[in-house]
Specification:
Elements (H helix, E strand, L loop, with lengths): L3 E7 L3 E8 L4 E9 L3 E2 L9 E2 L1 H13 L3 H4 L2 E8 L5 E3 L5 E3 L5 E3 L5 E2 L8 H6 L14 H11 L1 H4 L4 E3 L1 H10 L5 E2 L1 H7 L2 E2 L4 E2 L1 H6 L9 E2 L5 E4 L12 E3 L2 E2 H9 L5 E6 L3 E6 L17 E4 L5 E7 L3 H17 L6 H13 L7 E3 L14 E3 L8 H19 L2 H6 L4 E5 L1 H5 L1 H10 L4 E2 L6 H12 L1
Parallel strand pairs: 1-6, 6-18, 12-15, 19-25, 25-26
Antiparallel strand pairs: 1-2, 2-3, 4-5, 5-10, 7-11, 8-9, 13-14, 16-17, 19-20, 20-22, 21-22, 23-24
Helix pairs in contact: 9-16, 10-11, 11-12, 12-15
Length: about 450
């Protein structure tokens, strides 16, 4: 009889669940649904929040679409999700289990995501320097909690536990009073030392951080506990892995050799390769560096150029065009417009138009915003603009991690993945022009598959 690992990814825009057959190492069933959970910010503080209840409702619908006869033979559950963000909840009332076999959200905050912008550069510069090789940016969990401690301390008083959205799901499934967090997610919060695997408790205490909200750290690949109830047919007592980072899981799903570099362009963009086994990160943050070192598994690290500007740049361009057309009295769907733009750019093989697409800035250079240069009367067609925009996304990520750096690291091929690359042939063409190494697209990076593979390999 076949057994399965249930892999779940709670992403920025969607939830995906897969049933990974342990015997064959293949995906037996999968479903993905959009969460449609974004909350419009009227506060003027650049808040970026999502409705926790909607995310959990989407999670329930997604799992419920998988074959129940297979769910009854799930032997473990793996969870990954969007990093950096923070969700707060009350112990013992963070969710409500129905008389059937699922839970809904209870006493929780909204999810404050990695895209949150309330921590201004002035606020961040007022924070103490972390004892970590990773800098702290707006949208990082510890920075967000410190902002609330200073500006809205009464908000924090309502809650006793904090974690990422995927940590919350693991805690609810296991009936935990607290939060178990892996170094992958802890490092994404800031103020966490990955060499000692400990929070900077003294530094945080001095800054006014409510230390009782810090999660307990457990190794990446370890268990958080066991399901406290049947869950959509998955039996009670099923082991649940401590939640992992979506980035690390997506890399795990498609990096088949240590000489691979993975380029993922979805909402944002990342280019990464594995560091040698004996690599140790710097002792202190390098805020001006475009390359970060993310904890992977064991004591290993990934070198990462993590850009805030990826598929979201193209989506913004499409949205602007659609808004202009509406103002001019013509309306069209964003998806239809996207396909027409790709078609125009495929007929325009090159362009001398230059687009720097950093409309969101970058964490290492937040004030460097987008630019368009070399404009002439002959290069303002939609084909030129779209071609130049796609090339700009690649120029930006390769400026953050140059090809020479990849060659020095022994990278012999680029594994291209992500929804933007899959959807956009022009972007694929520009990927192949940007790197001297061969580019393969075979297996798409998939965090839900990756977290299932981790449990299959490590439990």
């Amino acid at each position: 009889m076949s057994t399965y690992i249930l892999g779940v990814d709670v992403g920025t825009t969607s939830v995906k669940a897969v049933l990974f057959e342990t015997g064959s190492g293949s995906v037996a069933a999968s479903h993905a649904l959009p969460t449609s959970s974004d909350i419009i910010d009227h506060s003027g503080i650049q808040a970026k929040e999502q409705e926790t209840g909607r995310i959990i409702d989407t999670l329930n619908r997604c799992i419920g679409l998988l074959p129940r006869d297979k769910l009854q033979h799930v032997t473990s559950i793996g969870l990954s999700g969007q990093m950096h963000g923070v969700l707060l909840w009350k112990a013992r009332s963070g969710c409500v289990w129905s008389k059937r076999d699922f839970f809904t959200s209870g006493d929780t905050s909204q999810l404050i995501t990695w895209q949150d912008g309330r921590c201004s550069s002035n606020f961040l510069s007022s924070l103490p320097k972390p004892d970590s090789h990773l800098s702290v940016a707006t949208g990082f969990g510890c920075a967000t909690i410190l902002w609330h401690a200073k500006h809205r301390p009464e908000f924090l008083e309502d809650f006793t536990v904090a974690g990422t959205i995927q940590d919350y799901v693991a805690s609810m499934l296991c009936g935990l009073d607290g939060c178990m967090m892996t170094p992958q997610n802890a490092a994404s919060w800031g103020f966490f030392n990955t060499s000692s695997n400990q929070w900077n408790t003294d530094i945080l205490k001095g800054a006014g951080f409510p230390l009782h909200l810090l999660p307990q750290c457990v190794p990446s690949g370890d268990l958080a506990g066991q399901t406290c109830s049947d869950w959509h047919g998955v039996p009670a007592g099923t082991p649940v892995g401590a939640a992992l980072g979506d980035f690390q899981c997506s890399v795990y799903s498609c990096m088949s050799a240590r000489t691979d570099a993975v380029l993922n362009i979805s909402t944002s963009a990342q280019l990464t390769f594995a560091m040698p086994a004996d690599f140790k990160p710097p002792d202190s943050p390098q805020p001006a560096s475009s390359i970060s070192y993310f904890p992977y598994f064991g004591d290993s690290y990934l070198a990462v150029a993590a850009s805030l500007n990826g598929g979201n740049v193209m989506a913004t361009f499409v949205g602007v065009l659609a808004a202009w057309m509406k103002e001019l009295g013509t309306e069209t769907s964003d998806s239809g417009l996207y396909e027409k733009l790709i078609h125009c750019a495929l007929n325009q093989e090159t362009s001398d138009l230059r687009v720097s697409p950093t409309i969101l800035g970058e964490r290492h250079n937040p004030l460097c915003l987008g630019q368009v240069a070399n404009i002439s009367t002959t290069n303002l067609s939609l084909g030129h603009l779209t071609r130049a925009l796609c090339r700009g996304v690649l120029d930006n990520i390769t400026s953050m991690m140059p090809a020479e750096r990849l060659q020095q690291a022994g990278v012999s091929r680029i594994v291209g993945s992500g929804s933007a690359i899959a959807r956009n042939e022009v972007l694929r063409q520009e990927v192949e022009r940007a790197f001297p190494q061969p580019v393969v697209y075979g297996q798409n990076a998939d965090s839900a598959v990756g977290v299932a593979m981790v449990l299959c390999d490590r439990l």
